[in-house]
Every structure is written in C-alpha cells, then in structure tokens.
User: What shape does this take?
Amino acid sequence: MKKDNHTRYAILGLLTTGCNTGYSIKQMIDNSLSHFWKISYGQIYPTLKSLVEEGYASVRITEQEARPDKKEYQITSAGIQLLQDWLQMPVLELPTEKNETLLKLFFSRHQGKVRTLELLDNHKEKLEQRYNTYKGIKEMIESRLSDGEDAVYWIMTLDYGLLTTNAAIDWCESAKEKLTK
Amino acid sequence: MKKDNHTRYAILGLLTTGCNTGYSIKQMIDNSLSHFWKISYGQIYPTLKSLVEEGYASVRITEQEARPDKKEYQITSAGIQLLQDWLQMPVLELPTEKNETLLKLFFSRHQGKVRTLELLDNHKEKLEQRYNTYKGIKEMIESRLSDGEDAVYWIMTLDYGLLTTNAAIDWCESAKEKLTK
DNA sequence: TTTAACATGTAATACGTTACATGATTAC
DNA sequence: GTAATCATGTAACGTATTACATGTTAAA
Assistant: This one.
C-alpha cells in the first residue's frame, strides 16, 4: 500500500464498521463522515480493488435475485494490522480548510457592504443547516448504536462538528454587526 | 479564464493588495491567508502567466542590481471586473475540511485509550500554536494596517480562525475527559 | 411511468504538491 | 562557509471529481 493516502485508510477502516460494499461505504461516508472526509465512487471502487490485490481485504461475490450482484469486502488480518499502524502514526499537520466565504470576505472591499452582508447571511444559513444535520446524526447514533464499541468515538467527532459550527455561527453574527455599526 | 477555480481568483485578488510578484503573493498567502487558503509556487507562476494571456493582468520586468530580475504584475480593469463578478457569485457549498485527527478518532476503537488521548493532546497542542499565530497576525494588522481599506475584512477572517480554533481547543479537553472518566 | 434506491465501474479531466533547476546577496 | 532571503519556473506525480456506461426493482 502506498505510503500516506489517508483516503485509503478511511476506506479500509470502514470495512470494520459493517460496510462491506462500495455502495454502502459511500453511504456511510455521506451520512457520517462527511463533516471531515468526503470520497467519491471514482476513488472507492479502484481503492477496494487495490486493497484486495495487496492482501488488506478479501472479496466475495454475492448473487442477489432482485438486485445487481454485490461484491462483499472483508478486511484481512493484514488489513487490521495496517489500520492500527496508521492509527499510531502521529498527525503532523492541522488541516487547512479552503473556505470560499472567507476568501471572498478577504477581498470584500471590492464590493458593497450590502453584498458582504449577503455573503455572511448565506454562510450563516448554511452553517445552521449543517448544525441541524449533525444534531440529527448524533441523535440517531445515540438511539440506535449507543451500545456499539464505535459509538463513543463517532459521537466525539460529531461533537467537534457541532461545537465548531456553532462558533462559526456566532462569528457570522458578530461580523455582521461589525459591518453595520 | 476557466470557470470556477477559486485559487485563480485568490491570486487575482492578491494583485490588488500590493503584492505584485509571484514571490510576494506566496508570502502573503503563507502569512495571512493560510488559515483558509494555501497555494504553492507550482500554481502561482503558471496562473500569473495565464492571467496575463487572458488580459486580466499585465506584467513588467524590472531589473534589479543586487537581486534576480523581478516580474511585476498589475491587475487590469478587466481583472478588477472579473474579481467583482466572482465576489458576487453566491457561495454554494460549505467547505469540508479533511481532518486527519477526526478520521483517526472515528476508528479509535482499534487502538488503546492511551493512544487516543495522545492523539487528542497532539491535536490540542497544534491548535494552540495556531491560535497564537492568528493572534500575532491580528495584532500586526491592527498596529500596522489599521487605516487600510482592507484591514476590516482581514481582521474578520482572523476572528473566524480565532473563534473556531478556540472552540476546537475546548472540544479537545472535553473529549479527553469523556475518555478518562 | 418515472423516480429513487440499489449496485459497480472507467476515462477524462481538473486540481494541487513536490522535487528539481538556477543563481545572487546578505547576515551570521 | 553556510544558511536565509530574494526570485522564477517546469515536469512528474499524486489526488479527486465528474461524466459516462449499465441495469434491476419497488414505490409513488
């Protein structure tokens, strides 16, 4: 396996969460990891293929009557080991999010204040939507998976999303005030 | 200019801030935009070249005695117009930051609690460094550029960084407590 | 009847980093 | 003498998205 493509580890890790097809991995990512990781099918299927080639996963084709054929992937013991090795590698750098709103704000002296207020309003609205989405997922996990070993960790990642999103919402308000006063 | 590459607009925008060489644009990004946008030389120089080709910037070569030749770029009126058009285009999607720490945390049932606490500690430490960096930049802008038209907006982007980083630091503490109790 | 959900995959393209290449001056 | 700063640029590579291609079933 190539050195440091975290997306590969994400896919490998998801094989330990009950997701065992490309399709269900994609769903899981969209539903539960989307606030800190996104992956498209264009990465998932080729990656699954190469994980099998390298011995970190195995695959079994299941025929289904009413549905297209399924490829069910299982993580191997070599795969578990690799996942654990990756987990223990220290994180060297904080992520830089590419924030289009902040980029536009940075250059906002070139546009009217009204437009800038609209920019902030739009951002706030989207943040509020995001906040509610996270809250929904958290409640879902708490009610349906609270006994699972993974649940504690999953909820922690959601709390991160909730807290930082909330801080960003507050910031929008104070930025708007700063512009209008 | 190709449709929606925001990095191109970032470079175009920086030409309005007194940065007029590839080198100084890179410095500006590393110093003042790095919390929401990063660009490498591999993007900057080709982009400047194509901005000139498309008429959004002009260039003038300056010979310097004691230094390598300089290419000084100026934004054209077509460039200003393009920048303004871009500013007015609504932001459609919130960014998803790829957060390696959260990804590892998500799969942390595969590692011991001690390791997970180390993961969180390491993250917190890096966040604190970042917080102090932002604070330093903010103070610098307030003392040296507070009269410029750009300053208000630049400080708002820094406040965003300070607020959300602070929320993330708080989260680290609460996550650690959750794991130890 | 048509849309959503299930299911897999590739090719073209876009975006971005890193390593390489060059070279002078100044400060330690 | 050697590291840092100034200064520009390309080629190779890595990463990721999008569009395309295919096909079934269940529900509205």
Notes: The first strand of chain A starts at residue 57 and ends at 62. Chain A is about 65% helix and 5% strand. The first helix of chain A runs from residue 6 to 14.
